[in-house]
Every structure is written in C-alpha cells, then in structure tokens.
Amino acid sequence: MKVTYPHMGYLNIPVFNMLNNLGMEVIEAPPISQKTLELGSLYSPEGVCLPYKINMGNFLESIDQGADTLITICGAGKCRMGFFNAVQKISLAAKKKLQFFTINTENLFRDLYRFLRQTTGSGRLAVIKNIAMAVQTLKALDAINDAKNCYGARASAPEQIINICDSGVQQFAGCRNFSDISYTRDMVIDLMKNVTNSMESRPAKVALLGEFYVLMEPYVNHMIENLLIKQGIEVKKFVSTGEWVYSKAFLQSLGLYNEEKDCLNQARPYLNYHVGGDGLKSVGSALWSAQNGYDGIIHVYPFGCMPEVVAQYALKNIASDYNLPLLSLSLDEHSSDVGIITRVEAFADCIKRKQHCKEKTLRSLR
Amino acid sequence: MQLHIGIPRAMLYHEFGSLWSAFFQNMGIPVSVSGETNKQILDRGTLLAIDESCLPLKVYLGHVDSLLSKCSHIFVPRVAQYHRNFHFCAKFSGLPDVVKNTFRLSPEQLIAPNIEDKSPLSQLQAIYTTCQAMGLPAVPGYLAYRRALKSWRADTPCGSMPSNKIAIIGHSYLLKDTFFCQEMMNTLTSRGVTVVTPDHVVSKVLYDEAKVFQPDIYWQLSAKIVGAARFFCRQPDIAGIVMVSSFGCGPDSLVNEYVEHHVLKQSTKPHIIINIDEHTGSAGLITRIEAFWDLVERRLKS
User: Fold this and answer.
1) How high is the ipTM of this complex?
2) Max CA-CA distance within chain B?
3) Residue B49: CB partners within 8 Å, gap ≥ 6?
4) How far is Cα B245 from Cα B232, in angstroms, rounded to an integer?
5) How far off is chain A from B212, nearest CA to CA, in Å?
6) Contacting residues for B106 by C-beta, under 8 A, at least 6 apart
C-alpha cells in the first residue's frame, strides 16, 4: 500500500511525518507546478473550481510514481469540495485500480483515528500521539509564518526573513517528538527576530482573507504574502491550518468550540447565515479588520467559488461603508504571475499613499 | 405606503411559487409576481450582480429590481434545507443577504423567513417572522398557510406520463423560465415531439431514484436531476435526454460529469448537455437541438 495525499501549503510536512512514523509507505506528490496544473485541468470538468483541478493534478502525478491509495477530505458544508472525490474517482479509476480513503472534516479526529488504526495496525497511544504531534507541528509552522509576516514587514531586507522562514519550515521534516518541534520553532523565530533591526516602525496592515485552500497554498496564490512583505506591508491571514485542525479535531469533537457561531456574531449585519465553505468567515474577518484599524483587505478565492461569491456581495458594502480599499483576486488556472503581481503592487501603493495622507493630516492637526 | 408584497419570478419561485402567492392572498394582502424574464430583466440583473454569480442569481436580482418601484416589501425566503439529508446550494442560503447587500434594502423592506428544514417548528417560525414583518397577527397567518399548503399540494402533478419522446432535465428555475428554455421546447414541439420535464413526475419518485447516489450527492436540486436522469433513462418511450445547466453553476459543474458517467453512459439513450449563459443568441441553441433531434430520429428509424 503506497499512500498519497494532495498538497496544501506546508500540510504535507506533518502528514508525512505522521504516516511515516506509523510505518506507512508514503509517496509524496511532487510540489505543485505548471505541469500539475495542466495535467489536472486536462482531467477535470471544465467549470469546476481551481482546488479540484490541482488536487487532481497531485493525484495523477503521484499515481504515476506508483501510489495506489489516496487520502482525500470532504465535508465543507454546502461547498463543492464534499463532492470532489465522487467525481475524481471516475477519471482516476480509469487509470489504475485505486483505493480511496475519505476523511470527513466534520469528524476529523474520529475519521483520522479510524483510518490510521485500520491501515497501520499501530496501538491506540501511538496513533493519538502522532495525531497530536502533527497538530503541534502545524501550529508551530503557523507561528513561524505569522512571525515572518510580522518581522518581514519591518526588516530592511525582507528577502532574508523569507529565506529563513523557508529553510526553517524544512527543518520540521525530521522532528520526532514534542520538544523537537518547540525547539525548532523557537530557534527559527529567534533567527528572524535577530535579523530585524527595528520593531518601532508601524507598517501598513492588510487583512488577507478568502477561501481556505488558495490562501494556504503559496503556488496558487502566487506567494501573495511574500509580495506584500517585500512592499513593507504587514499581512494578517485569518485562517491557519494549525488552528483549524486543532479546533476541528479536538475542541469541536469535545463540544468546546463552535466556529460557526463565532463567525455569525462577527459577520452581522452583512451576512446573517452560514453559506457553506469559508464565506461567513471571510465576511466576519473583513468586518473585524475594518473595525480594528486595518488599512486594506485582500480577498482571494478560486474562480466561481460559490460561498465566496456570496461573501463578495457583503464585502463590497463593508469596503464602501468603512472606506477601506478592497482587492478581489479570483484565481483560475489561467491567472498569470505578472497580472497578480501588478495588481498587488498597485494596491500596495494605494494603501501606502492613503496611510501617508492620514499621517500628514494627523501631524497638521497637532 | 400601503402593504404590497413582491415575489420575484426566479429561483425557488418555480418550485414553491403558487404556495407563496396563495399564502399572501389568503391573508388578504396584495401580491405582485414579477413578469416573465426578458432581456431587460436579464441585463439589469447582470449589471447588478457580481460577475461570477451564476445565471439564475443574476436573473433573480433583475426580478427584484423590477419589483422595487411598486412594492413595499420584497419576499425573499431563505431555504437552507427542505428534504431531509439534502441541502440547497450556497447561493440559496445567502439569498436574503445578497439581495439586501445589492440593493441596500432596510431590514423592514425585506421579508426573509428562514426555513432551516422541513420540520413543523421551522415552518411555524417562518410564518411567525413573515407575519411580524408585515405587522400582522400570527394565528390567521398560520391558518392562511395551512390553506395555501393544501391547494399547493393538490396542484402537484399526478403520475401519468405522456407517451413519447424527449426528456429535458435541469433545474426548474431554468426549465420553467420562458426566456431560457421556451425556444428550445418550441423547436422540439414544432417537430411533433412531446417534451417531458422532471415536473411531470412526482417528486417522491425522483428522490427515491436518487437514493442510489445518496452518500455522494448532498444538494437537493442536484439529487432531483440525477434521479430524473435515472428515471427517464429507464422509460422505454423516452427517445433522448437533454440536460440543461447554466454557466457558473457550482453543483452542476461536478454533477453533470457524475450523471454522464453513472447514468447517461450506462444507458443506450442519446443525450446532450447544453450550457447556457447570459449572452443570448438562440441560433446556436436551436442548431444544437435540431442536430440532436436528427440524431434521435435516425436512431428511432433504424
């Protein structure tokens, strides 16, 4: 049995560790590239969203390398994602005899636990420990990414911070226990801190929100975070894999946390119902950042994403009500680097000028 | 301004329209249903909507716009779930907010009951919010609803099938919208073909057919489509199947592929999938339908 799974940001590192520690043979799909995208689009229905096509490309590439067991997730409310694997099966099954394991995100912990117990035959304790370690690793990676966004915007050489972060992320591949994880995390963050010269400067702040997958996968969003850091803009990303997995896997299964309720309270009065996917969360975090002194909003989503399109109606009004610049990036397999970079840079200029004007008026008032 | 309710003739109106208007009429409140979709409504809707919205949503906004000038209230119910185990697509769940955000309506102008599921409690709550929005007592509202429900149920089609010919399958808000599908149907009927749609079949039959696909499909309207496809494929007097869907429809983008593989290709019946969008021009549509009918006819003769 050779297991494979689709890529999403740095998710592959903890998942690889987890499966490997439990003695499974893992075939990791090659990093997402132009080839993945083309291959995936070729075998996908035309009107489907970008995450589907990329997942498909990941699967096809790892099947070529010998994988025969695919892990997918489903269960994002009313979003298309829940239906992904039913259709992917059709064209993948034509290639080779394959085994599918679907993990429902509504019962993340239970499904994952069952899957690991069944396929690896490891003991209860080992399985739980490895799941917990994967979650811990994800949280550490999120912390590093947040630190990159914070220090990078303030550093004189943001490229250096980005490099430290990128190589730091790779360090987690070899982590075997909890203290390894926290040691590596602290070390990488300290390194970044040392490179930053001043913490006094107050860079412009931008909220980055939208659909989960495209926010998490840097290849798909054209490394938008790094682009903004290089412009000297601090980015706050409202979704993070670690926190999401932690709340889904542990808190929600214990009944301690209900994300939907939180988001609903945040999104009123612009959106009053759960619309599937991350639509509600996008609106909620947009409103929050509008009320908490952010200088702009960037909304990223795959072309035709149903929940995000509903969210757009609300975002447009939030932006105009709070006089906040809003950049909407709708991504599909044709969106080019140059187009995205130009738009993000123009947006950054707009925000910086706005901030400059604000400071000037403040100074003249004094 | 006097109380005057407007109901847009789009989306779920085509499923529950007569129920809604009967309810308001029973309450003795003037109701206007917007006119049939036309080019003007479509263009207005396209202008108002976010570009990436699906065609039915654009049309919906066009209909709301046409009602605003003459009505005091617009009725935009939010139906999240009607049949157990099934959901509606995200756009239905967000419909009241989409309308509110597009037109900047005040909450008082919008009657937006929230129908979370089919349970009596949910229906009662919906009646209560509707009556409260109009400033009317809830008890007569409940009685009016009961009467409307009775007449609506009596309306639903009986199981008899017209003999012969082509089945057109798709969302009811596309098939019943004269602007989108009338021409297609006319082309076929002018050649002596009887057109059958899922509406000619009792919903329960369709849902029962769809049970085979239960673990996969969780959209209610898609389940109906898949059920209809499976049902029509088994009818010997159906000569061909036309699937209609709209550009930008999320569920359809995947479900069509699924239906094609699991249902249409398994049967021997000829089929065609037609995708429509707001760039109207019936020539292409008619050509395709005619070509399809030629194919079906040849099949029938041989």
Assistant:
1) 0.91
2) 66
3) B57, B58, B61, B102
4) 17
5) 13
6) none
Q: Is the pLDDT of residue A296 over 80?
A: yes
Among chain A residues, CA nearest to B262: A90
Interface test with B, best of A88, A283, A313 (most B CBs within 10 A): A313
**Residue among B151, B181, B201 nearest B280 (CA):** B181
Chain A residue with CA closest to B86: the answer is A78
Look at the block and give the residue holding tokens 């004189």: A156
How far apart (Å, rounded) are the C-alpha atoms in residues B8 and B15?
12
| Distance, CA of A40 to CA of A53 (rounded, Å) | 5
Six-digit token pair at A189?
């963050």
CB contact at 8 A, B91 and B78: no
Has this prediction a pTM greater than 0.90?
yes
Residues of chain B with Cβ-Cβ distance to A312 below 8 Å are 50, 52
Rounded CA-CA distance B1/B70 in Å is 10
Cβ distance of A275 and B94 shorter than 8 Å: yes
Among all residues of chain A, which has the CA nearest to that of B97? A271
What is the rounded distance in angstroms from the CA atom of residue A207 to the CA atom of residue B45?
30
Describe the crossing of helices A124-154 and A178-195 by its angle, rounded to 10 degrees.
0
What is the residue whose two structure tokens read 């949280």? A139
Per the CB < 8 Å rule, is A275 touching B218?
A: no
Interfacial B residues in 8-27 facing A (CB < 8 Å) = none
pLDDT in tens, A15-58: 999 999 999 999 999 999 999 999 999 999 988 999 999 999 99
